[in-house]
Structures are given as C-alpha cells and as structure tokens.
Design a protein that fits this description.
Number of helices: 16
Mean pLDDT: 90
Strand content: 15-25%
Structural class: alpha/beta
Helix content: 25-40%
Low-confidence stretches: 1-24
Largest sheet: 8 strands, mixed
CATH architecture of the domain at 35-400: 3-Layer(aba) Sandwich
Radius of gyration: 24 Å
CATH topology of the domain at 35-400: Alkaline Phosphatase, subunit A
Length: about 525
C-alpha cells in the first residue's frame, strides 16, 4: 500500500508539474502585416521580375510561403472583417465596402450601388463588422496579450466599432472620419490633425515609413515596460492602394530598370510603392532580430485581395482578372509565415487557405482555447506551419465566396471551390449564369466547362446554394421584385445612397460576358508586354 501510495503521490506531483509547465510556457509575440491591394505575384518570391522585395523574399526563405492562399472577398472591407471575425462574409452580412456614416450594425435598407438597368440590384448589407462578433484581438487580449493596431481598419468608424473598442490597447494612424476613403501617402497638416497616433509624424512624411518607425518603437517600448507579456502588432498598411503616390526618388530607378527587365509588370510608380512596403517589412524584421525576439515571434504577411489591374497598375498574369473579379486574380493573395525554429525555412505549401483561417491559427499559436462557434469558417494552420508537429494538417474542404455587389469590373457572384473544380454563379446573366473551371488542369481559367459538364455544375450549384442559405447570406435583389421597384423609385427621386454620383446612377450592364471580355482584354495586354 505504501509503495502504491508513494507512486500515486509521485504521479500527481509529476502531472501537476507538467500542468504548471504547460501554463507557464512563454506565449509567442505575433506580428500580422496586412497589405492593401497587393497582388498574388507582386513580390519577388511569388514571381515578380520587376518589383524589388528583398526583405519579403528573405521572410519567405526563413519561413513558409503558401502558394494557394485566398482572401475571403475580392475587395477590402469584407476580407478584413473575415480575418478579424473568423467568419465567412456572407454569415456576418458584412460583404461590401463600408460607408463612413454607418452608426450601427443593422442591415441597410438601401444599397450603395444599385445596379440600375440590370436584372438585379445589389444585395443589402451592413457597413460595419457586427458588434456581437468577438474579434481575435479581443481573445488575445483576454489571453494576456498587449495589442497594437496600425493603419487601415475599414470595418467601422462609429463609437463601438473602432479598433479601440475591439481589443486593441494602442491605435496608430487611424483616421476616424475617413478611414479608407482617401489615402494620404504623404502626410499633410490636416492629415496629422485628423489621424490618431504617430506622435513623431510631421508634414511631408511618407505615411508607411512613419508607421513603420512607430511600430518599431512600439516593439522596443513593449519590451522595456511589458516584457512579461506577449504582444500583438497588427500593421495594416495603406500601401499599395491607389492613388499611386510613390516615395520620392524611387520611380526614376525603376525607369532605368525597365531598360533591362521585360515584364508584364512595368508601372514604375507602383513598383516604388512596393519597395516602400518591402522596406517596412525589413524594418520590422530587423527590429525583432536586434531585440532577440525572432525565436518567440510568429510573423504573418498577407493582403486583403488580389492586385488591382485597372489602369494597368499591376499584373496578376497568368491568373485571370484582378481586384473585384470573380477570377483567381481577384481572390489569390500572398501568405507568408515565419517563426524561427518552429517553421521549417524555405518551405512551400500548396494547401488552399482562406482569410478566416488566421483567427484560429493565432489562438492556437498563442496556446489559447479554440472557439469554433466564433471562427466557424476558419481552420487553424498551425499544423501546416509546423509540418504536423503541432496540431493537425488541414483536411480537404470546399471553399466558399460570396460577393453580391457591383464593382468597376464585376457583377454579383458566388463561388465554390471543391476538389479540382471551381464554380462561379453569376446573378446578372441571361444565359446560364454559371462558369466552371478545372483548376488542376486549367489553373488560369481559360476553358469554361459550363456547357460540357452540366452534372458537375448541378452538384456544385446545389452545395453552393445550400451553404448560402445555411449562412444567411443576403442575395441580390431582383429589379422586378417589390423591394427592387421600391429601391428604383427611391433612386428616381434621388433618395438612394452612393459613394459617388457614378455609382448612384450606374446603368452599365455587368454580367458573366462583360467580366470575361474585360479580363481577356487585360490578359492580352499583359501577354503583349512579354513578347
């Protein structure tokens, strides 16, 4: 009995020690760098021959690069909301670019862009990320993290919806009345008066550089004053979104570079903004290394949607389309993760990921309990990042996308990617309304199989419709419905809302055919530059 009792006591002590050790394992710092409109191949390690990104390329060499990462939406606000909430945009009904006058998270009764002259008006939607969602920053803060947000928020301006209210202890470069409505790449006195944070900023400073300096200061000050706590640095640059305002002195260097480099990417001013973005990543990584933090810091780098091909700012070739398109160029983004001694350096991962996956990934990396009811549409990537050593590898799963709105290039659409196939449902198309591509055999979406494989279209179409119903996604409003006629009557009286006059009076027809024609025309231009 005595021997057995001693054994039990020793077992309890041993297991208790393990429990204490598990609780006292140091949580990693987290750096999430999120770019605006950065295309899937706008960095050197992803295929760009013209843009110079040595620091981001170094980040990829030190960690893992995902080759098939998808944003949750082809435009900024809903993709950001999906990352923050871990939920499919259709589920939160935060599916379009927010408006700055939104004061609550109720569903709007009028659309920002009506789609006048089309079969369908755009779906109703919210203009803020609903307050009832628990964002990943709130979970990290409750788990002991000190959180700092920089830059473009674009998920709500009204009190209760700002980053200050959603889990962040410090906020910098937040424009409380016009966040995302304009992009002051070079700061003017009025910008500084309106902007929160960046105490060292002065007129004439390049905003991305000022943000990066302050971000480095935050890291150092945190280690001096709060070294016992982990930190979250969430850096959301306004780069490389239009207007194209390069840092002075750089475009001339790229004009010289064009003489020796032939590329479908040839916009010197845009290239200069890419370099400024890369400089920021270099500053952050150098600061982490200087302070000896690389071994205990998870760094993630990504973008909110595909690169903007309008006005030939950039090229996503050989992918079709760009920002706002239903094609791969609108949804595919870079995704790089680095965590010294935890992620094998120089690793390529072809697993399909989506923006919602970041939420559970951060929780699991921080040693916090997962919350599948909140991040219901995301899965942790920790197993992928560590080759299965920690956590599970991602199962094969369908990905869903829903953008029931009009843009400069596209009409309302939904997408399912399941196995080899991608099905696009167009809601403003008289002939069929579907496009089907085999992404394994035809990754650049050149051959539409819609008419050749009706059975596949039917099966995937049913799965897509079922998911949209289950998630409560708002659908486009038929123009001939009672709700549609009411909206059109309000529009005729000038009582509908819109970002600009041209969106209030949009009468151009957008559908599968017009989007295809535009994407093919862009592709022909891009191919021509390579000849």
């Amino acid at each position: 009995m005595k021997i057995k009792s001693i054994a039990i006591i020793l077992s309890v002590v041993f297991l208790g020690g393990l429990a204490v050790e598990a609780r006292t394992v140091k949580q990693p710092n987290i750096v999430l760098i999120y770019m605006d409109d950065l295309g899937w191949k706008d960095i050197g390690c992803c295929g760009s021959r013209f843009y110079k990104t040595p620091n981001i390329d170094r980040l990829a060499r030190q960690g893992m690069r995902f080759t098939h990462a998808y944003s949750a939406a082809p435009i900024c606000s809903p993709s950001r909301g999906a990352v923050l909430s871990g939920k499919f945009p259709g589920r939160t009904q935060f599916t379009a670019v927010m408006q700055t006058d939104a004061t609550d998270d109720s569903l709007y009764t009028q659309s920002k862009i009506l789609g006048v002259g089309n079969q369908n008006l755009e779906a109703l939607h919210r203009h803020v990320l609903p307050r009832g969602e628990t964002l990943f920053a709130e979970r990290l803060k409750a788990g002991g993290y000190r959180n700092c947000f920089f830059g473009k928020w674009h998920c709500g301006h009204a009190p209760g919806f700002r980053p200050h209210d959603r889990g962040y202890d410090e906020v910098h470069a937040f424009f409380s009345t016009c966040d995302g409505a304009r992009y002051p790449h070079y700061l003017m006195p009025a910008d500084i008066d309106e902007m929160e944070g960046l105490p060292k900023a002065k007129p004439g400073d390049y905003l991305s550089e000022a943000m990066s300096v302050q971000a480095c200061d935050f890291i150092e000050e945190h280690m001096e004053l709060h070294a016992d706590k982990p930190f979250l640095l969430h850096l959301c640059h306004f780069l490389v979104h239009a207007p194209i305002v390069p840092k002075k002195g750089l475009p001339e260097q790229y004009a010289e570079r064009l003489k020796t480099v032939k590329s479908d990417q040839d916009h010197c001013q845009y290239a200069s903004m890419i370099e400024s973005m890369d400089d920021s990543v270099g500053m952050i990584m150098d600061q982490l290394e200087r302070l000896g933090l690389l071994e205990n810091t998870l760094v993630l780098f990504s973008s909110d949607n595909g690169g903007l091909t309008l006005h030939e700012f950039t090229s996503n070739y050989p992918l079709m389309g760009g920002k706002s398109f239903a094609y791969e160029g609108g949804y595919r983004v870079p995704l790089i993760a680095c965590w010294k001694d935890r992620i094998s350096p120089g690793t390529l991962n072809s697993t399909r990921t989506v923006g919602m996956d970041l939420y559970p990934t951060l929780l699991e990396a921080a040693g916090l309990d997962l919350d599948p009811k909140q991040h219901v549409d995301g899965l942790s990537l920790l197993g992928e990042l560590t080759d299965g050593r920690e956590g599970h590898l991602l199962p094969v799963r369908p990905l869903y996308f829903h953008h029931p709105h009009y843009t400069h290039a596209s009409s309302p659409h939904s997408i399912i990617i399941d196995g080899d196939y991608k099905l696009i449902r167009y809601y403003n198309d008289e002939e069929g309304g579907y496009a089907l591509f085999n992404l394994i055999e035809d990754p650049y979406e050149q051959k539409d199989l819609f008419k050749e494989q009706p059975e596949t279209v039917a099966v995937l179409g049913r799965k897509l419709r079922r998911f949209l119903v289950e998630t409560g996604s708002q659908m486009p409003v038929p123009a001939e419905s009672a709700e549609g006629r009411r909206s059109l009557e309000l529009h005729a009286r000038g009582q509908t809302k819109g970002w600009f006059e041209k969106t209030r009076n949009l009468k151009k027809v957008f559908n599968k055919k017009t989007e295809r024609e535009l994407a093919l025309a862009e592709r022909a231009l891009q191919e021509g530059k390579l000849k």
